[in-house]
Amino acid sequence: MLKNSLQLLTLSPLAAETNVLFYLNDAVTQLLEHKEEYTQFGIVRYFAEYFSSVKNGNHVLFREFGYIKATAHNRASFIRVLWRCFRQIGKNGDLLAMLEYSSLLQLLCPDFPVEMVQHAARIVLMDDAMDCLMSFSDFLFSFQIQFYFEEFLESIAAIYQDLLSGKSPNTVIVPTSTSVEQLPQVATEETEAQEGVDSSVFGECIEVLCERFKHNHPSTSAIREVLELTQRVTFYGFVMALVRHEGINQDIGALPNKSELLIDPEMDQEVEKLIAQIAISPTSNSSSSVPGHKEPPRKASPRKSLHHRKRIEMESDGSTEETDSSEN
Amino acid sequence: MKNAFLNKCVFVTGPGDAITLSENSPSGFPIAFRSCDDCALSPERIDLDRRCLEECHLLEGMGRLRLLNFQHNLITHIHNLSHLRHLAFLDLYDNHISQMSGISALASLRVLMLGKNRIQRTCSLDNLTKLDILDLHGNQISQIGNLSHLSELRVLNLAGNCISRVDNLQGLDSLTELNLRRNCISTVTEVDQLPCLQRLFLSCNSITSFDELACLGESCSLYELTLDGNPVALETWYKQAALRCVLQLRQLDMKRVTEEERRMACVMARKEDEKKRESHKQAMHKEKRRLAIRNAALQWEGVRACLEHPAQNGAKEEVSPEASPAHSPAQTNGLGGGASLSLSDSHLAELDGETLRLFGLGALEALERGWGVQTAGAVTVIAFRYIHFDAIVPTLPRIRVKFPNLSHLIFLETNVSRLPQLAALAQVRRLDQLTIHPEGNPVVSLSLWRSFLIYRLHHFNLHKINNLEVTMNDVISAERLFGTLGHIAATETPRCRLLVLLEESRKRQLQFLLEGRGRRAGLSPEELRDNGKLLGEGLSRALFNYPSRDCCSEGAMESSSERRAVMEQYIQAQVQRASDTNLKGESLHKLWPSMFMEMVRDYVLEMRDRPTFRQACLNRLSTQGK
């Protein structure tokens, strides 16, 4: 295991891209915070599992928002996890509100901020009628763009505002989210009369931004493709076009094509299996629970193997949550 | 004028006295003279009854007259009596007198009998301060009045009049007997202002209830009372009521009150008092309860306004202040209210049969206090209202232990707003029914909340959620929606993460299994997927928990960021070392072939001349030995 990580480290440009140090830091931090559990678990095994999960994209499950946001790989993994976990809900065809999606996200990441979901919803709904319902695929793709390119979107929003308020496009724009200058009203009214800003001007500004942008951004070719389509473009129109762009989606690599979003035969099989388990389980509604009837202590039935009996003893330690269907 | 009668009159005044009547009087009034002999012994008593007199005679020289009897005559006015300064007894019973004027000068009068006349109004009594007995029975008096100067009056007879209301009795400070029989009395007042009144006769009137006799109870002196012939006396409980009204009564309706009766009346009076006090206490309690609930509601509105997410419609915030407090009285009146366990001005905990109701944050402490096994065993429903859900969560595990028969939880106005919060209910371990009221719980507006609840609390086998039965279809669709989520969570979460997430018992389970199986490092995907199967079905659901918020504290955050800084430095150092070592290794690896070649060449050169080499080695060995 040590050899693996060392190999990763020595490929230094790759090291920067894959944020190896970050993961190492996090691994050791987690180890220190949960010393008792992990020392029993085995430190070597812990590191192995940690980095395998990073590779597989599972490492973001049930982690805090700060961690998930930290690297591009984490963000992409999270988006992918979302897709896999909630695909069935999308398949069900329900249209859900923003708050509902936010709730679902919080199941996997308890401190996921609602603002992020709000921004994503705003993209889908084009900043209009915020309590409208959205379909799963619409939301997921918008969320992907919003979350993965968060900083980029902030910056181009600032650029857009500047352009709207009539600033000269030739000035070098240093994008900060607080840069909104006071300009004569006449100019503003003029530009607002025609919707959005000029696409080519906008595109130039974005390219200037991308040249020295530290964070992730969509490829410039994709941006150019999007902007070529229309003469004028609004902010949300532009972002929505990014959302729909197949190339960007593939670059991120988290989600499949829109048309294939709901297809996953393997998982469907799993679901059917789970449902079958429940359907045949004798612990169905109308039968057993009599109010006031205390649960009898579990007794090991004689035909179980020794290992099973050991497990049962562990279970009766107070956790009555589990319903092992075979026991009934 | 019937003089013949007068001739027959015999005045019984004193021994041997003789009175002659003169027929010649200037005014035409019969004047009675007494002989001069008799003048020395002036009579103190004159009886002029049954003489068909139509007027009072002017009685001259009767300065010392004390008793004057005019009974059974036809007198219409009271005249010619003003000079009788010593008159103490005046009897005008059974005449035709319609006005009482004419007696006002008789300041020494002690007894005045005016019964069976036609008097309509009492008056002219202001100077008769020495009056002891006043008899006005059988007249047409409709109102008691003008008696306030009679401070020495002991007996007042107003029977057989048309009095309907007993009042204006002030000033009769010596009155001991008041006869009001055969009137039309319906209300009695001011009797308690008669400090000496002992006997009161109210027979044959129109008194219908003891409420009209309330003042009798206040009297301290009254011991004899008659109420027969009133409608109130026909009631079955009349005697007890009378005794209860006037506790010290010794004679009722001319019958002695026995000790037994009096005792019973006392007891019943006390019981009534207690009942009144009890109902007053209950009313107070009810008011307090209502206030507590209202204040809890108001506090809740305040809290909710702060917590209200900015994204939610502003309309919600505006509507609530009017709606909710107005709402709650209606609701609380509907709620029975039971034994109050904990009551303050802003929270209320009460046990109402099987239901334990908690209003307001402070009510949660009622769950902590000692509960007797029987009382706790009787509770099957707990209802929370106006309490923030996050505050309830820490109590959930203990609730199950404390109330073993709990089968239904109700949450109303508790601000359950997110799906993960619903997961906290799993800590209750077993439940039959669950109600999360749409009022005050935004989570109900999410369309997936019910499915998630069914999924997460699958092992509860809930019968009903919000009074809607949970069908097999519900269960299956919940599984369909959330099954993948659970499956992925269970199978793909790295085990190290699982160890941190799970609660104690499962953690030990997992650890036990990990040790037992003795896995090597580097789990393959299939083995990872076995996570779920190893720990049982419930694992996938158990991963979704809602921790109580007390784990994050300021101090912990600070120390962890310090720790992180230290750690980063340490790791940097280690990484540096590791990469240096690796670099060295790599360069060694690169250089090794040439190094090896050189070493070999050196040795080959050295060994070309074998005898010289042998000698050199031996020399080296011997020098080394020294």
Automatic annotation (TrEMBL), chain A:
Cellular compartments annotated: Cytoplasm, Cytoskeleton, Microtubule organizing center, Centrosome, Centriolar satellite
Compositional bias annotation for Acidic residues: 315-328
Keyword check for 4Fe-4S: no
Keywords for the protein's UniProt record, in alphabetical order: Cytoplasm, Cytoskeleton, Microtubule, Phosphoprotein
InterPro entries the UniProt entry points to: CSTPP1
One term under GO cellular component: microtubule
Keyword Transport assigned: no
Domain of life of the source: Eukaryota
PANTHER family, alphabetized: CENTRIOLAR SATELLITE-ASSOCIATED TUBULIN POLYGLUTAMYLASE COMPLEX REGULATOR 1, UPF0705 PROTEIN C11ORF49
Family to which this protein belongs: Belongs to the CSTPP1 family.
Function according to Swiss-Prot or TrEMBL: Regulator of the tubulin polyglutamylase complex (TPGC) that controls cytoskeletal organization, nuclear shape, and cilium disassembly by balancing microtubule and actin assembly. Regulates the assembly and stability of the TPGC and thereby modulates polyglutamylation of the microtubule, which antagonizes MAP4 binding.
Protein name listed in UniProt: Centriolar satellite-associated tubulin polyglutamylase complex regulator 1
UniProtKB/TrEMBL annotation, chain B:
Keyword Repeat: yes
Membrane-spanning parts: none
Region (Disordered): 313-339
Keywords, sorted A to Z: Leucine-rich repeat, Repeat
The UniProt record lists the keyword Repeat: yes
Pfam family, one: LRR_9
Protein name as catalogued: Leucine-rich repeat-containing protein 49
Taxonomy of the source species: Eukaryota, Metazoa, Chordata, Craniata, Vertebrata
